[in-house]
Structure formats: structure tokens, C-alpha cells
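Dear Dr. K.,

Following up on our conversation at the group meeting, I've run the structure prediction for Fumarate hydratase from Thermococcus radiotolerans. I'm pasting the input sequence below exactly as I used it, so you can double-check it against your construct before we proceed with anything downstream. Let me know if the numbering doesn't match what you have in your notebook.
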Amino acid sequence: MAVRLRTPLSEEDVLNLNAGDIVHLSGIIYTARDSAHRKILELAERGELPFELDGAVIYHCGPVVRKTSGGYEIVSAGPTTSARMNRYLKEILSLGVRGIIGKGGMDAEPFKGRAVYFAFTGGAGSLAAKSVKRVLDVLWLEELGIPEAVWVLEVEDFPLLVAIDASGGSLYR
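The predicted C-alpha cells came back this morning:
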């Protein structure tokens, strides 16, 4: 089944998805790799997170970025291996995150009843970049560097595959 969704995702949105569904995602997503996950959890614990994660989608991605006169342009936005972020998964989902995008899969159990894992093809970063309409913000750029910073992206019709659904279905088994 093919579905069009817009962030923020609702509980109903994710509970209606099944492993194998194609999703065209539009709205705001946040990139985050290892260092960004640590920073997000540290700030959330102190109540100082500078953005709302309720219904959010996090993309495991360290984009290639070009500075322009008007801000930034995403040149390539391929996924990074999500398994590295398994150690942060339960805490990240407890912040209200409803979707994770990456490659290679993650532990399925934490997604049950609350979120989905979307797969995007590794090696297709330029295709992903075509779905990025604009960079809305970047957080912790100086501290973490380009690939590890949190990039706030507006995407349109980002083509994704539901690889782990909220009822425990997984394409990785």
C-alpha cells in the first residue's frame, strides 16, 4: 500500500502502517547521528531541548551540505546505519518521536505501539536530497560539525519503505 503522510505523525498514522508499505513523507524532519542523539537526550533530561519531538521523525543521516548566500543546501542526504543508535532508541521514542528513517534496521521491540522505522536505500543520497525542499535550521553545527549536527529539513514526498511497524512486523526477520 502507498500512503502520503505529513509530519508531525499521529499515533493513528503510525498504527495504520504495515511493514512493506510505501510512504511519501512531507513536512519537517530532523537529522541525527550518534553525537546528536547524546545531545538530544542530555538536553531533554534537563528540560532544555530547543525543538519539539512529539510526533517527530528523525533521519539517521549525516548530510553533505553546501553553504549558499541564503543559508544551506543539502547536496546529498543518504542514510547512515541505524543499528548504532539502538542504545538510544527507547529514550528517543519516549520523547514522542513517531518515526525513524535509516538503513539496516533496528531493534523492533521499542517501536511496538508507538512508532515505525522507515528504510531508505543506502547509496541514494542524491535522490533523498531531491526531496529536501529547504533547510529550516541547523543546531549545534559548531559543536558537532556538519555530519553530526541536527539539520531541520522540510521534505516533500520523501519516498520511504516501512521496514518495522508499530505492531512488531519487520522486513528484517
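Two things stood out to me. The chain has one domain: 2-164. The domain at 2-164 is CATH 3.20.130.10 (fumarase).

Best regards,
J.T.
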